[in-house]
Amino acid sequence: MLEAGFWGLVGGLALVLGAVAGVVRDVPTRVIGAVMAFGAGVLISALAFELTSEAFHRGGADAVAAGLAAGALAFFAGDWVIDHRGGNHRKRSGGQQAEGSGTAIALGALMDGIPESVAIGVSLVGGGGVGVAVVAAVFLSNVPESLSAATGMQKAGHSNRYIFGLWTAVMVVSGISALAGYALLGGASGNTIAIIEAFAAGAILTMLADTMMPEAFEHGGSWVGLLTVLGFALSFVISTFE
């Protein structure tokens, strides 16, 4: 359980590092878009070859279908509420956060990080080691995610204290979520674990399509497609080492 919490914190640490980079350095929006495209490719690969594939082997097609649908709908519903309360620009790099609610932006950032961390915790269920590909995918995708958001928050006039405080809080919640994912599912049936894995995959994929990928394609230019494939391929190679 403690190991799950530790690896959840490692994944969340990337959010803090990305926020530091976004605040300290004036990163061009084109670079942010390119890095976000790479991170999206990494996560998509992990969802396909780790979470969804593992869920299928544990519980079959019905568990995968139920989990994916539930995860996607749950994230969509939560995101819809956050968006309509002023958090719809939380991942943008152009300063659009000035138009929204600070509370909604903070809640949205927390909501975005929970499914990834739960996936890390679940990867430890069954007595094996942590899913290296899942941790690597979360880490590599979290850096551009917070980099873009922190850049936008700074342009919107938020203080460095607010920005670092927010992403530190998300890091802590990431660790707790990974710990809880393992603790609550340690004795669960294979079918239940499969549904939770697919649930996390559905939620993360919905988040990617709603927040990271639009920002990547808006600012990344013509290289976005190739960088997404590069991230996908790297994550796949990592998954073959397990």
Q: What key phrases describe this protein's structure?
A:
7 helices; globular
Question: Could you characterize the architecture of this molecule?
Answer:
- By secondary structure, the protein is mainly α.
- Helix content is 83%, strand content 0%.
- The longest helix is centred in the first third of the chain and has 59 residues, at 29-87.
Task: Provide a quick synopsis of the model.
The protein has helices at residues 2-24, 29-87, 102-122, 132-155, 160-185, 190-219, 224-240.
**Number of distinct beta strands:** 0
Question: Which range best describes the helical content: under 10%, 10-25%, 25-40%, 40-55%, 55-70% or over 70%?
Answer: over 70%
Mean of residue pLDDT values: 85
Question: What's the alpha carbon Rg, rounded to whole Å?
Answer: 17 Å
Q: Helical segment tally?
A: 7
User: Could you state the order of secondary-structure elements as H and E?
Assistant: HHHHHHH
Uncertain parts: none
State the oligomer: single chain
Shape: globular
Note the main sheet.
Answer: none
- Beta-strand content bin: under 5%
State the separation between the terminal residues, measured CA to CA: 20 Å
Write the layout of secondary structure elements.
Blueprint: H1 2-24, H2 29-87, H3 102-122, H4 132-155, H5 160-185, H6 190-219, H7 224-240
Helix pairs in contact: 1-3, 1-4, 1-5, 2-3, 2-4, 2-6, 2-7, 3-5, 3-6, 4-7
